[in-house]
Design goal:
alpha/beta; 9-stranded mixed sheet; two-stranded antiparallel ribbon; 10 helices; 11 strands
Length: 292
């Protein structure tokens, strides 16, 4: 598959029909149609269902569409990062939700102040989503909540820790507590992060059996989980400081036996960093030393 043909394919999907895409690409409609047929023959699959002037993606077409976007973004990013000898380019970072990211923001500020042509692209997600993008070369760094297997990654621990607890309504039966014990969670409707290992970690530290946790919903980012809490659906097990509860009906309550998590910045072993990515890493190391 050539990058040029993948760009044609993405344009057709975006425009919804071949004739409009051909005009945008400044090529003839027969030429574009032939390129798409050749792509389907190369992949030995049908990518489109043609309905009059409109096209509809098949399941294989949807898969290629998602993969092609990532491929083209990676190609474009790589080109931007090597076209100039001076420090220029884009640093892509996948971030778990955490107040500890303030150290990362300080480093980003220092980089943009020093090198105005370095840009940042940030992505918020859970550990699995971040690792997938990191492994595929779509981001330069991941900021992940421990515990996580880092055997294939270089890592830099961040200084501070996050505190685990529950996010609940102030008028719930737990709302008057200043800390919450494991026994108070029995039979309570819980909303928990879907990140691998979180449920097991919490069950072990709270000394309760996983099957005793009444998990009614999972989340990957906390904002929508907070809406479920606000609606009275359940209590979200989460990290403190992500949701601002000031002036709201919500309240964060830490666990009685304190549970904390560390965060680390990780990047792939044996993968060379661009100049802009290395600059960010150096600035982050400086920030972390100043914070000690």
């Amino acid at each position: 598959m050539e990058n040029r043909v993948l760009r044609y394919f993405l344009t057709v999907v975006s425009e919804g029909n071949i004739s409009a895409a051909a005009k945008l690409l400044h090529i003839t409609q027969p030429t574009l149609s032939r390129q798409l047929r050749d792509l389907e023959e190369e992949l030995d699959t049908v990518l489109f269902i043609r309905k009059g002037k409109q096209i509809e993606l098949t399941q294989e077409g949807y898969y290629l569409f998602n993969q092609a976007r990532d491929i083209i973004n990676l190609v474009d990013k790589t080109a931007r990062n090597i076209t100039n000898k001076k420090i220029i380019g884009e640093v892509a970072i996948g971030m778990a939700e955490s107040e500890v990211n303030r150290s990362v923001m300080k480093a980003i500020k220092e980089v943009t102040r020093e090198e105005q042509e370095v840009k940042f692209d940030t992505f918020s997600g859970n550990g699995e989503q971040i690792l997938e993008k990191l492994d595929n070369g779509l981001i330069d760094f991941g900021i992940i909540v421990e515990p996580i297997n880092k055997v294939n990654y270089e890592s830099l621990p961040l200084n501070n820790q996050d505190v685990w607890g529950i996010l609940t309504r102030r008028d719930s039966e737990l709302g008057e507590l200043t800390s919450v014990s494991a026994t108070r969670l029995f039979n309570q409707p819980l909303i928990i992060s879907r990140q691998d290992g979180v449920k097991t970690m919490l069950a072990n530290l709270l000394e309760i059996n996983e099957v005793e946790m009444n998990i009614i919903a999972n989340y990957n980012l906390l904002y929508n989980a907070s809406l479920m809490v606000e609606a009275g659906i359940g209590h979200a097990i989460c990290l403190d400081g992500i949701i601002n509860t000031t002036g709201t009906d919500l309240k964060f309550i830490p666990f009685e036996n304190e549970i904390t998590s560390s965060l680390s910045v990780i990047w792939k072993k044996e993968r060379a960093l661009s100049l802009s990515a290395q600059l960010f890493l150096n600035k982050l190391k400086d920030v972390l030393k100043e914070e000690e």
